[in-house]
Write a structure and sequence with these properties.
Layout (H helix, E strand, L loop, with lengths): L9 E13 L8 E6 L4 E6 L12 E11 L5 E10 L19 H9 L5 H12 L1 H6 L16 H15 L5 H13 L4 H4 E2 L2 E2 L7 H8 L1 H8 L4 H6 L5
Parallel strand pairs: 3-5
Antiparallel strand pairs: 1-2, 1-4, 2-3, 4-5, 6-7
Helix pairs in contact: 1-4, 2-8, 4-5
Length: about 240
């Protein structure tokens, strides 16, 4: 009886394009990709060549993937089409690769869900689109030798503070929303201050000012939306 070869499956999905580079010699295709889909890091191959893009923001893409038959008769994922998806939210797609960050992405998403002001939710998403925040928020320590002085310490500390704020009674939802956002990013400047070998030159600025500089573009975009009162009063109910 002849063996019947199953037809290759085709799927489409949105992901963060973490890497797109030449593949090793003898691979299934000339280029390889590393895609983050929210539940894990996915590796695939493609004939689509990389495009030069700015390094300031992570690329979000919608891809079509086909299971192709490799030379060794094993199935391997091949990307046959890719289009930009920069308007897609990034938070559902995040999956930290740091072993110390297990569960932190889900906790981050859960606490952001408590924010009612839509522009502030968009601001949080915009911040995590920044390459430096996306790549280092879950790996950076919160200090060099004080509290949370370990990889992912910044994420642990920041999310803990945001969770405490979300549980704290406030006189208004607007105050709570602003406090949650502040708690999440009050130490984000440490991404620029702490390098692999200790302090960086940004330490001279202090992590507070470094954080303002790091978030300049998202802050400018938030400020351009509307007046402060209009900004914080728009909620999901509207």
């Amino acid at each position: 009886m002849e063996a019947v070869m199953a037809a290759p499956s085709t799927i489409g999905y949105t992901a963060i394009l973490e890497a797109h580079e030449p593949a090793d010699r003898g691979s299934a295709a000339p280029f390889r990709m590393k895609l983050c889909r929210g539940k894990g890091i996915h590796k695939a191959w493609t004939w689509i060549p990389p495009k030069p893009v700015g390094a300031e923001r992570m690329r979000k893409v919608h891809v079509t993937e086909v299971d192709a038959l490799a030379d060794d008769f094993s199935w391997c994922p091949v990307i046959t089409n890719m289009v930009a998806a920069q308007n897609a939210p990034i938070l559902p797609l995040i999956f930290p690769s740091c072993s110390n960050a297990t569960g932190l992405a889900d906790r981050l998403r859960n606490v952001v869900e408590t924010v009612e002001a839509i522009p502030l939710v968009d601001f949080i998403d915009d911040v995590f689109t920044l390459s430096q925040v996306y790549r280092h928020f879950f790996t950076c320590p919160a200090s060099q030798d004080y509290h949370h002085a370990l990889p992912s310490g910044l994420a642990v500390h920041s999310i803990e503070m945001a969770e405490r704020v979300a549980r704290t009674p406030f006189t208004s939802p607007n105050d709570r929303d602003l406090a949650i956002v502040y708690a999440l990013f009050h130490d984000v400047g440490k991404i620029l201050c702490y390098g692999k070998e200790g302090f960086t030159s940004s330490q001279e600025l202090g992590h507070e000012l470094a954080g303002v500089l790091l978030l300049k573009d998202p802050l400018d975009a938030l400020e351009a939306l509307r007046t402060p009162m209009e900004l914080i009063t728009e909620t999901n109910e509207s």
